[in-house]
Write a sequence for this structure.
């Protein structure tokens, strides 16, 4: 594998100034070493790379104005030689020729002969940072594995690189997004940076140093050296905010069925121009050319394109039959699967595919539409509880009372300390009445100025609470405990599994998932109760089912003939799961036995254990980890829980008697 | 038959229907290979080259021209019976050719405008490609066809393999050749993205937009290309003319022309 020329410390560190008028001396010095010089020159209204003889062949005083599907040359107000960006040619034309005879065969002797690369020494003049990155990408493709392309190796090794740092950019440029430019970081023999009067020049290899030594240079002034740095830095500013590329590979893989693939394919004419101008695209096909009777033949390799209708065809059919399949192949290869194959991006941000697309497709827009950046996950911090100490309570007023089932009632509280409204789904409050011991009750719902507590009357306090009338006062401490890590499910399938009154601590979570449903791949609720009459929140269940935000499936353990729905335990609903379960985040609450079987069911479907959250129930008196009642192995359920990720609990979760 | 040699030379006929003879001449233009070709093929019927006639059956029949007159229909069916391999050559035979533009016009009005005695002219209201009437074994596209593709087809018959003729956009040939895209860099109208290659990007090489003479590629997205040209400000008449050239009657160009025609009639 070719690596960057080893930079000699002194050579790299030392900068020189070369006057613009002396650029010919550089070209001449290179030519004297027996190299042809390939550089930028104007042909057919564009700056292309071709053989140049003198500096007069270079595009001094020209700039390129580029946008999607448009390229125009315009006069500059100065005589800068490299005051353009990149044109339709890329250096792969010279390291990886578009047409190449790779072998010949003779039927008379039944012999096959490989064509040996004819790679005379050459110099590439004007190689930009993104183009150096592209050469490095193709190095990995052609030379980075067990099987190599020797023709490429020979041509690459024959090339002496004169890099130029960009001092201007086009609207199609996005090297700063791909981390490839505008500054040149290595991989060159000589580097030029254009400033007002000429160039700051430095060598990056012994060969480069030998050439620089022959030039009529002087040391740059402090101002000249500073201008070189500023000119490159100004390009970074001109290019604006980099695109959010973090995780683009994974983001694309999550969007293989996005409708935008079809929409962009409707615009795409599949001419393949993007793949031809791309400096990293490497696909080829071979044709056998023979004389009339096939006695001698040659194998001609040509640049091919994944947009070709025959590219993925076999005798039985076409693996990428639809235009959307082919467009998806191109974009996902560049930004996603290239990483899997070559441990780098396949895109260097040169923007050629944007400028040279005749139907003006801008891959930056497609990426943003298909795989938008996942908003950074902000893990909220629990609000500080009020009246934390046992014995101190914040007083709230009971606004309304609603019976859920025969023994379960929802109390809606208002006139609250704002801390309660700022609580998070999954948290609980300690509720007290004078003369009654405080009980922990999870907050089932957060509204603008109310919280709901859904209480099953099982003891003296809970029975007293459900018998209160609107207007009554209650004492609250909280909000307490951990909460559902909703943000960890962004971009995934959020699955809520509830059993019986377990839906109560999940109600606020379901509300939050529904409100943010476009942040998730999907949102589902599986709810099981003993009988239809035991279902909590029947109006809400009906509303969720009717809406589009969540998929709701309910089942009951047993029911009379009037029940038309599913019968069976909640885990029987799991056969409806059709997604890739490695992308599921699950939230499970119910009786402990139900949680254990649900967790087992989810794991057997492939849901990772660290993507399952449960809410545990234990005896709690203080709610803040002081009284000791709720200990579960090393955890206080009240303050380390009640919401736990399954991996936090380890095998304590399934163990009896803990 | 794949054995070369004088005694087993395949019998070749070159025939024409409504056409200009330019594609047949491509065979004669293969100057360097011509002697080799006639030594390996027995060209028995070729009115453009010789007045000697020879009835079928033939091993290969090259058919130039569209089906444009009533007698063409019977003649092409008879040729099919006489041919082991029937190859249509050129835009007329493969797509109906420029004469198929009458398929969108009033045929009788055309005849009346041109001929003093239109009643003496026997022609069909529609000019159609040969494949509308008989099964065709291979097509060589273009106006005229490409000599290299013709030589490849002849080679493939002798060698006994399928001809290696690509179906890709003209853009691909431009890019491999290093031709700067005249659509992007000069704002020219060009049919290259939707037209199949084979000409080695002849027109763009001379800074002219592709005329589409090789006809639409398989699955050509003509709809997007015409929509794009309209959106960039080209008048519908101009876009209509670009598609309604040598191969306008071939789908999907035909649909674009018909749709633009409807819009024109409405507008």
């Amino acid at each position: 594998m070719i690596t960057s020329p080893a930079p000699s410390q002194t050579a790299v560190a030392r900068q020189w100034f070369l006057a613009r008028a002396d650029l010919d001396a550089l070209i001449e010095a290179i030519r004297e070493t027996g190299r042809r010089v390939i550089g930028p020159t104007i042909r057919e209204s564009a700056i292309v790379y071709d053989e140049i003889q003198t500096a007069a062949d270079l595009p001094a005083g020209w700039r390129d104005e580029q946008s999607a599907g448009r390229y125009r040359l315009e006069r500059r107000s100065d005589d800068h030689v490299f005051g353009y960006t990149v044109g339709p040619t890329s250096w792969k034309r010279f390291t990886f020729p578009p047409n190449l005879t790779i072998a010949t065969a003779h039927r008379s002797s039944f012999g096959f002969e490989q064509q040996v690369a004819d790679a005379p020494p050459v110099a590439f003049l004007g190689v930009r940072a993104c183009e150096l990155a592209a050469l490095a990408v193709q190095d990995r493709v052609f030379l980075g594995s067990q099987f190599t392309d020797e023709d490429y190796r020979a041509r690459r090794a024959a090339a002496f690189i004169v890099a130029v740092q960009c001092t201007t950019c086009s609207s199609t440029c996005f090297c700063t997004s791909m981390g490839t430019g505008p500054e040149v970081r290595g991989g060159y023999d000589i580097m030029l940076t254009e400033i007002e009067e000429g160039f700051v020049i430095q060598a990056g290899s012994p060969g480069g140093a030998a050439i620089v030594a022959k030039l009529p240079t002087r040391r740059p002034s402090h101002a000249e050296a500073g201008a070189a740095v500023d000119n490159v830095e100004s390009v970074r500013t001109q290019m604006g905010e980099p695109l959010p590329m973090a995780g683009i590979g994974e983001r694309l893989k999550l969007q293989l069925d996005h409708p935008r693939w079809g929409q962009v394919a409707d615009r795409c004419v599949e001419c393949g121009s993007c793949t031809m101008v791309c400096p990293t695209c490497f696909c080829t096909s071979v044709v056998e050319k023979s004389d009339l009777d096939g006695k001698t033949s040659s194998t001609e390799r040509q640049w091919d394109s994944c947009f070709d209708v025959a590219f993925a065809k076999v005798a039985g059919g076409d693996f990428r039959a639809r235009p959307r399949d082919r467009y998806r192949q191109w974009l996902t290869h560049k930004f996603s699967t290239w990483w899997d194959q070559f441990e780098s991006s396949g895109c260097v941000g040169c923007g050629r595919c944007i400028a040279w697309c005749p139907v003006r497709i801008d891959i930056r827009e497609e990426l943003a539409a298909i795989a938008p950046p996942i908003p950074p996950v902000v893990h909220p911090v629990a609000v500080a509880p009020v009246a934390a100490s046992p014995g101190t309570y914040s007083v709230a007023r009971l606004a309304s009372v609603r019976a859920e089932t025969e023994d379960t009632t929802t109390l809606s509280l208002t006139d609250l300390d704002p801390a309660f409204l700022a609580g998070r789904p999954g948290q609980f409050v300690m509720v007290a009445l004078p003369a009654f011991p405080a009980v922990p009750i999870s907050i089932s719902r957060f509204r603008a100025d109310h919280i709901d507590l859904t209480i099953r009357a099982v003891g003296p306090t809970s029975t007293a609470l459900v018998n209160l009338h609107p207007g009554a006062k209650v004492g609250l401490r909280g909000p307490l405990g951990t909460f559902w890590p909703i943000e960890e499910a962004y971009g995934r399938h959020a699955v809520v599994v509830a059993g019986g009154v377990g839906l109560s601590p999940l109600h606020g979570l379901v509300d939050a998932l529904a409100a943010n449903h476009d942040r998730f791949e999907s949102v589902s609720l599986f709810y099981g109760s003993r009988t239809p009459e035991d279902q909590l929140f029947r109006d809400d269940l009906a509303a969720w089912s009717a809406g589009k935000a969540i998929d709701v499936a309910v089942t009951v353990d047993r029911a009379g003939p009037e029940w038309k729905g599913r019968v069976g335990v909640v885990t029987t609903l799991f056969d409806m799961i059709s997604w890739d379960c490695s992308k599921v985040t699950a939230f499970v609450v119910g009786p402990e036995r139900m949680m254990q079987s649900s967790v087992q069911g989810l794991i057997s479907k492939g849901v990772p254990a660290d993507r399952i959250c449960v809410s545990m129930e234990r005896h709690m008196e203080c709610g803040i980890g002081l009284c000791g009642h709720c200990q579960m192995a090393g955890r206080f359920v009240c303050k380390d829980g009640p919401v736990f990720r399954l991996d936090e609990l380890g095998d304590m979760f399934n163990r009896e008697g803990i | 038959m794949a054995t070369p040699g004088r005694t087993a030379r395949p019998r070749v006929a070159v025939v024409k229907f409504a056409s200009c003879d330019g594609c047949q001449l491509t065979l004669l233009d293969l100057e360097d290979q011509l002697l080799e070709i006639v030594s390996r093929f027995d060209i028995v019927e070729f009115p453009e080259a010789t007045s000697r006639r020879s009835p079928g059956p033939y091993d290969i029949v090259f058919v130039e021209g569209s089906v444009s007159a009533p007698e063409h229909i019977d003649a092409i069916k008879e040729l099919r019976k006489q041919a082991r391999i029937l190859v249509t050559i050129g835009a007329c035979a493969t797509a109906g050719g420029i004469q198929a533009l009458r398929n969108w016009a009033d045929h009788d009005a055309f005849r009346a405008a041109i001929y003093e005695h239109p009643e003496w002219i026997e022609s069909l209201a529609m000019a159609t490609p040969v494949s509308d009437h008989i099964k065709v074994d291979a097509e060589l596209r273009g106006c005229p066809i490409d000599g290299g593709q013709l030589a490849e087809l002849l080679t493939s018959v002798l060698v006994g393999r399928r001809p290696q003729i690509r179906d890709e956009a003209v853009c691909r040939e431009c890019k491999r050749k290093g031709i700067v895209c005249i659509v992007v860099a000069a704002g020219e109208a060009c049919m290259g993205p939707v037209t199949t290659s084979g000409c080695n990007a002849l027109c763009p090489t001379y800074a002219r937009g592709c005329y589409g003479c090789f006809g639409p590629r398989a699955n050509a997205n003509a709809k997007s290309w015409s929509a794009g040209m309209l959106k960039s400000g080209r008048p519908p008449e101009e876009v209509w003319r670009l598609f309604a050239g040598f191969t306008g009657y071939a789908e999907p160009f035909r649909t674009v022309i018909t749709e633009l025609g409807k819009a024109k009639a409405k507008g």
In short: The CA atoms of residues 216 and 251 of chain B lie 7 Å apart.
